[in-house]
């Protein structure tokens, strides 16, 4: 039972829990507790240390900005105004707060605010749905499309949109890069012919891909009802992120263990069987490494691309908050930063688990 | 000592009437190098009868593995010809099954699947149950009756090579080619696997060619030991018929009065 649980948590990349489980089950309690402290408590402590440094830094910046404001009021409007400014800042009034790096506490408040905002919007949405239910039923009978909620999306909706874009981009990368990688990997000639092109295109910035995709999509898609900004952003994400998979797949296919190829020759496997039964499974480890890189690159470039393509999502959320300049905008940007980081980490973990599941380990 | 190698001893009575299964004529292998051609094998002649077990012995790097891979069709000929069952070979094929030095199992498959992939190729029209029976029969024979569904990677080296042997026999090949099959194993496991190999071979009597650099192994397995000269321009230097009765039992072979004569003869050749 215990061994099975440990195997399962290891499989999902949660091996840091292993010593705790072992210690709880009474197995070498002291050694495992020490190991647990090292593997789990120390990382947690490092997070607290980070928050402390952040807090101190934010306080120092706040004070510097506050002093500068008071000083400015003094030189421009005299002692009286300076005192008023100092009082105003001390009172926490929104109108005169220094605008700088938000403190951890402010960020937490912004997080709560965003959450409340989400609940409010969800409520509005369900209210709206109820209200238009009858009308929509009628419209459906008449063959019209239903009325949908067009209000401002909540933060969580933005996350959902971003995940959708990344998923679409990832699938695009998968369906382009893996087949091409296999074909290129099978032939030395093809690999040499395309190598330069790949090397040149690989380092191109996401912004340029976006513009390129924009040029093409604008011409190809003329239907005004289609969500052009979504199409543009997911294609761009896919194109930016697919290179790691392409290179790794072709490398994996080209470097399949010669023994396996000999086996397939002795068995006289047909080309199709050779690819699907030998070459592909043998290159799975490299293909999945590539796909993992692809997911993290996709998630990283997504923000920049959404921002430029003006498609909804976390990227445009960050940009809007930055332009907005409300008192808690900076804190919301930091919330978005952590959300982006945590989701990126989770996506990587999911890919790692899939990779463990799909690939063999060499003895 | 010379008595054992007199020309009268160079034929194996029970194989006299058998047709030739493998014939190599004027075999030549050249690897081009920047400094000019490197001739590994030159003017090599070899003829093996149906049902004969031959081992080829020589120093490492003498080209014996090259010879085997050429027979298997995994390595091109630079000259000469190879005939199997009176037909010239073209490329590799399941009629010449190979047991590789490293087990070369597909690590993402189970023991059974590793055998099955070959059986499916050779018996495409057999029913699923029949194919399964063939795989299980041979895995059982090599002592893996309880490990059908174990992943190749979870098997020890020795067990992996057992699967390799089962996979080769399950192809029902005309010739079984063994490329230093036990070279990577410890001596205890090696002995066990030699017994397993001979036990199956005794039933199937498939023409077999085993490359080895272990003198005792070459004597224990073979009807005839072929000695290769060291390269470059390697060819067959000498050969020795091992007339011990089959089925062979290790203890009896080791205690045979002539055993050390044969062993000495081979060692003598290798040390020159």
Automatic annotation (TrEMBL), chain A:
CDD domains: TM_PBP2. Residues 159-351 form the ABC transmembrane type-1 domain. Its main location: membrane. It is found in: Cell membrane. It comes from Echinicola arenosa. This is ABC transporter permease. It is a multi-pass membrane protein. The keyword Membrane applies. PROSITE patterns: ABC_TM1. The keyword Metal-binding does not apply. InterPro entries: MetI-like (IPR000515), MetI-like_sf (IPR035906). The chain crosses the membrane at residues 41-62, 165-184, 196-217, 229-254, 331-352. Keywords: Cell membrane, Membrane, Transmembrane, Transmembrane helix, Transport. Belongs to the binding-protein-dependent transport system permease family.
Automatic annotation (TrEMBL), chain B:
Keywords: ATP-binding, Cell membrane, Membrane, Nucleotide-binding, Transport. GO terms for molecular function: ATP binding. It comes from the Bacteria. PROSITE patterns: ABC_TRANSPORTER_1, ABC_TRANSPORTER_2. Its main location: membrane. It is found in: Cell membrane. It is a peripheral membrane protein. The keyword Zinc does not apply. The keyword Oxidoreductase does not apply. Residues 22-255 form the ABC transporter domain. This is ABC transporter ATP-binding protein. The lineage of its organism: Bacteria, Pseudomonadati, Bacteroidota, Cytophagia, Cytophagales.
């Amino acid at each position: 039972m215990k061994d099975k649980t440990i195997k399962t948590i290891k499989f999902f990349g949660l091996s840091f829990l292993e010593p705790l489980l072992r210690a709880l089950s009474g197995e070498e309690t002291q050694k495992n507790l020490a190991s647990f402290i090292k593997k789990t408590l120390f990382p947690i402590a490092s997070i607290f240390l980070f928050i402390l440094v952040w807090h101190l830094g934010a306080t120092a910046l706040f004070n510097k900005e506050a002093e500068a404001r008071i000083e400015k009021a003094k030189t421009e409007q005299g002692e009286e105004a300076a005192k008023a400014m100092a009082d105003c800042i001390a009172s926490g009034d929104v109108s005169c707060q220094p605008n700088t790096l938000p403190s951890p506490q402010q960020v937490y408040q912004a997080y709560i605010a965003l959450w409340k905002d989400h609940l409010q919007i969800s409520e509005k949405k369900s209210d709206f749905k109820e209200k238009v239910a009858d009308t929509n039923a009628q419209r459906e009978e008449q063959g019209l499309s239903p009325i949908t909620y067009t209000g401002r999306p909540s933060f969580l909706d933005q996350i959902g949109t971003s995940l959708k874009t990344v998923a679409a981009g990832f699938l695009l990368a998968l369906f382009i890069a893996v087949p091409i990688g296999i074909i290129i990997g099978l032939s030395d000639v093809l690999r040499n012919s395309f190598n330069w092109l790949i090397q040149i295109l690989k380092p191109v910035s996401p912004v340029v891909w976006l513009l390129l995709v924009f040029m093409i999509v604008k011409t190809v898609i003329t239907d005004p009802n289609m969500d052009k900004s979504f199409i543009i952003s997911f294609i761009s994400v896919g194109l930016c992120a697919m290179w790691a998979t392409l290179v790794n797949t072709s490398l994996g296919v080209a470097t399949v263990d010669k023994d396996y190829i000999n086996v397939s020759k002795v068995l006289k496997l047909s080309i199709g069987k050779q690819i699907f039964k030998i070459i592909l499974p043998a290159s799975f480890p490299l293909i999945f490494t590539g796909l993992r890189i692809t997911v993290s690159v996709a998630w990283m470039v997504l923000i920049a691309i959404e921002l430029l393509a003006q498609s909804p999502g976390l990227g445009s959320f960050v940009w809007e908050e930055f332009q907005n300049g409300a008192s808690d905008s900076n804190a919301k940007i930091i919330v978005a930063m952590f959300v982006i980081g945590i989701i990126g980490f989770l996506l990587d973990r999911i890919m790692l688990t899939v990779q463990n599941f799909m690939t063999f380990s060499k003895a | 000592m010379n008595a054992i190698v007199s020309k009268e001893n160079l034929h194996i009575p029970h194989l006299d009437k058998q047709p030739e299964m493998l014939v190599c004529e004027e075999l030549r292998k050249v690897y081009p190098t920047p400094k000019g051609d490197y001739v590994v094998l030159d003017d090599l002649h070899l003829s093996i009868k149906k049902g004969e077990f031959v081992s080829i012995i020589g120093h490492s790097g003498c080209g014996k593995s090259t010879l085997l891979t050429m027979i298997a069709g995994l390595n091109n000929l630079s000259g000469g010809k190879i005939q199997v069952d009176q037909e010239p070979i073209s490329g590799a094929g399941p009629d010449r099954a190979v047991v590789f030095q490293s087990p070369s199992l597909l690590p993402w498959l189970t023991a059974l699947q590793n055998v099955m992939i070959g059986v499916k190729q050779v018996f495409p029209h057999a029913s699923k149950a029949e194919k399964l029976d063939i795989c299980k029969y041979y895995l059982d024979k090599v002592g893996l009756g309880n490990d059908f569904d174990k992943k190749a990677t979870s098997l020890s080296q020795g067990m992996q090579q057992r699967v390799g042997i089962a996979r080769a026999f399950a192809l029902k090949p005309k010739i079984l080619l063994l490329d230093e099959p036990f070279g990577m194993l410890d001596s205890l496991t090696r002995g066990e696997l030699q017994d397993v190999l001979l036990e199956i071979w005794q039933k199937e009597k498939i023409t077999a060619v085993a490359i080895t650099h272990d003198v005792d192994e070459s004597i224990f397995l073979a009807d005839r030991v072929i000695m290769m000269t060291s390269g470059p321009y390697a060819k067959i230097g000498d050969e020795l018929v091992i007339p011990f009765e089959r089925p062979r039992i290790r203890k009896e072979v080791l205690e045979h009065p002539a055993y050390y004569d044969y062993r000495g003869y081979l060692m003598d050749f290798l040390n020159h």
